[in-house]
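Lab meeting tomorrow. Please check the following:
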Amino acid sequence: MRKTSQFSLFRQRRFAPFFWTQFLGALNDNVFKTGVMTALTFDALHWTTMDRGFLNNLIPGLFILPFVLISAFAGQLADKFEKSCFIRRIKLLEIGIMAIAGFGWMTHNLWLLIAAVAGMGVHSALFGPVKYAYLPQKLEASELTGGNGVVEMGTFVGILLGQILGAMLVSHQQSGLELIAGGALAIALLGWICSRRIPDAPPPVPQLKINWNLFAETARNLRFSSRNKTVFAAMLANSWFWFYGAILLAQFPVYTEAWLHGDYSIFVLLLSTFSLGVGTGSLLCERLSGHKVEIGLVPLGAIGLSLFGYDLYRASLAYGNTTAVDVFGFLQQVGSVHIVLDCLMIGIVGGIYIVPLFALVQTRCDPQHMSRTIAGMNILNALFMVAAALVAMVLLKAGLSIPQLFLLTALLNAVFALGLFIAVPEFPVSFVAWIRSYRLRRKE
């Protein structure tokens, strides 16, 4: 029997409203956050006399902090309550946060905007566990890899479009503040409308008693997840990708200016290329896996992350331009296309790496503990991203160049992957089996 494509899910109510709800959430997070950071970067004197560098580090930090603090609480709620209703309440919270932000935009109240950034972090931390726990309830096992791939594609495209749209709206000469305030509120309202079409998804543990000690619950979650060696390894491997990606993406602005001698348009090009690469790799997983949860793809992605990370280092050293260029001038330079292709391939292999990890966690963790397991993974993701920022700052302060940081990250990825595959031999064994089965499918 011919298997249906992952794109057929867009015609089905069990998936489409959920997809657009999560896509619009990712879009709005980044429209608003990028709008605030753009305003503070290019119009700082109209908002505050505080140091811009401090604020540009404070804002992402405040957005990530709720993932550490309340993910354990969010996981409990997603396991205890019916998911579609829970999602709608989260979307109503988003509308309220954007209304407060709109007042902050109109009154030039920076602290209202900063509070709204933290509020959107709370919104995303609440949504994270239910986002990935919903899919296994509504998709068949043969659809899970494809469904996760589409969701990951939507997430990264939403992030990319949000960053571009947020910068464009707030930078509009005559009505930028009105556009960003109205646009973010409109996206939140549209997300709530989409959420009203999500079908019921019964809670696995409606009798669950909420543990209000979030630190104790976080520790309990991680201890529970660690009992399943393969699931916990997948959680750590997932978080490692966010460590790798956080180091890479955080360097792009300075890399663009100081190493490539380019303007903002080149930064957007690199960011877009990476994000579209992750989306492409995520979508490829269904075809590569043969419509099943295929963890043999994880080593393929891990190998690619090291190879193309190393190649980005080499391509950066070979780039010889020393004059200021825009995106068109950059693409005419020797080695520029090589750099762009490396960013694309890092994104593609990253998508191939991360989607099977999500599917593995969803299919092998305790179904009654799924949202709390995913909440634990979100906490690990946030901690790994914070660690990435600290590691990058220390290494750059110690004198490493940005290309050398790319190289070191690629080498660290190889060490992590080797440790992962030694600890859980199922990954390399599945990789060998996948190569054989893929060759057979190609011959058919």
